[in-house]
């Protein structure tokens, strides 16, 4: 009886046999997510624009005994998204359980300096990519017994932040609405849709800006973040994995904030 309970619980906290696509998995938060899903038993497919970093990461995952494949794709391009989903379908023989829309970028300029190109690249990379990949993945996800879509947004989707990230915040806020809308629409297809909204996470994308900030204000994290530090990519990977596992089977339409308490502390008040 006890063994039965233990094995049922172990199965609920596992991704053994799951097939996942994670966009932008060769660095930063995306890599943290790939590591976590693959270590929990999933077969993972990822993509990035740089062939050399993709080849390096694929070798590292193989050497670590993790089942990860991937191909080149710029998710801001519609034709490349179509090609990516064809490769994923071929790789997993038409099956997919998990789609993680992770890729995102920010163009940081005051509103009056932003151009049409800035608008287009931020919207196509951050929002249109996940919207379109979700449409493309739907037929495969519908076949799964426990399908999940995860969007990676940001606490900038809730609050304007100190540096000028209007376009970034607009896409992340829209992602929250997309999460809730799809969760509602696709519940009938047994597809759960959730979102993870990180605060400051130490990655290649933010390192330079954070280092410059800490030179100006060494107490920044201790003053603004209750846990008094930046997060790590694996600290985003873990809640993403939780939201994909059977143990979270009653969670959908949720925005899971991973920010060391930043939002409850009111980080973005003017000082
Ligand atoms: N870091 C933070 O503090 C933070 C906070 C809140 C939210 N987020 C969100 O978390 C997500 C990941 O951020 P990150 O900081 O981990 O970024 P990152 O360190 O820059 O990692 C980006 C990853 O995505 C790939 N990538 C970038 N643009 C791509 C594109 N157009 N098509 C395909 N792959 C692409 C990169 O590979 P290639 O360069 O080879 O393409 C790399 O694998 C983003 O949505 C971001 O908005 C980050």
Automatic annotation (TrEMBL):
<dbReference type="Pfam" id="PF13561">
    <property type="entry name" value="adh_short_C2"/>
</dbReference>
<dbReference type="InterPro" id="IPR045000">
    <property type="entry name" value="TR"/>
</dbReference>
<keyword id="KW-0521">NADP</keyword>
<protein>
    <submittedName>
        <fullName>Uncharacterized protein</fullName>
    </submittedName>
</protein>
<dbReference type="InterPro" id="IPR020904">
    <property type="entry name" value="Sc_DH/Rdtase_CS"/>
</dbReference>
<dbReference type="InterPro" id="IPR036291">
    <property type="entry name" value="NAD(P)-bd_dom_sf"/>
</dbReference>
<dbReference type="InterPro" id="IPR002347">
    <property type="entry name" value="SDR_fam"/>
</dbReference>
<keyword id="KW-0560">Oxidoreductase</keyword>
<dbReference type="GO" id="GO:0016491">
    <property type="term" value="F:oxidoreductase activity"/>
</dbReference>
């Amino acid at each position: 009886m006890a063994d039965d309970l233990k094995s049922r619980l172990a199965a609920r906290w596992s991704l053994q046999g799951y097939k996942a696509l994670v966009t932008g998995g060769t660095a930063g938060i995306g890599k943290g997510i790939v590591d976590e899903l693959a270590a929990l038993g999933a077969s993972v497919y990822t993509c990035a624009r740089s062939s050399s970093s993709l080849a390096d990461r694929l070798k590292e995952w193989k050497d670590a005994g993790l089942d990860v494949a991937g191909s080149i794709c710029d998710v801001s391009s519609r034709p490349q998204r179509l090609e990516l989903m064809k490769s994923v379908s071929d790789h997993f023989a038409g099956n997919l359980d998990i789609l993680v829309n992770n890729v995102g970028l920010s163009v940081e300029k005051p509103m009056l300096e932003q151009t049409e190109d800035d608008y287009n690249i931020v919207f196509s990379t951050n929002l249109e990519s996940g919207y379109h990949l979700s449409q493309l993945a739907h037929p495969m996800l519908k076949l799964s017994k426990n399908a999940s879509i995860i969007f990676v947004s940001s606490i900038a989707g809730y609050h304007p932040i100190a540096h000028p990230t209007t376009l970034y915040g607009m896409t992340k806020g829209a992602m929250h609405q997309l999460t809730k809308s799809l969760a509602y629409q696709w519940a009938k297809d047994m597809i759960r849709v959730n979102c993870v909204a990180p605060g400051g996470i130490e990655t290649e994308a933010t390192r330079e800006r954070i280092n410059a900030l800490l030179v100006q204000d060494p107490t920044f994290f201790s003053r603004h973040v209750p846990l008094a530090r930046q997060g790590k990519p694996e600290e985003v990977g873990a809640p993403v994995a939780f939201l994909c596992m059977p143990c979270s089977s009653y969670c959908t339409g949720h925005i899971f904030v991973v920010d060391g308490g930043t939002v409850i502390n009111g980080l973005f008040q003017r000082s």
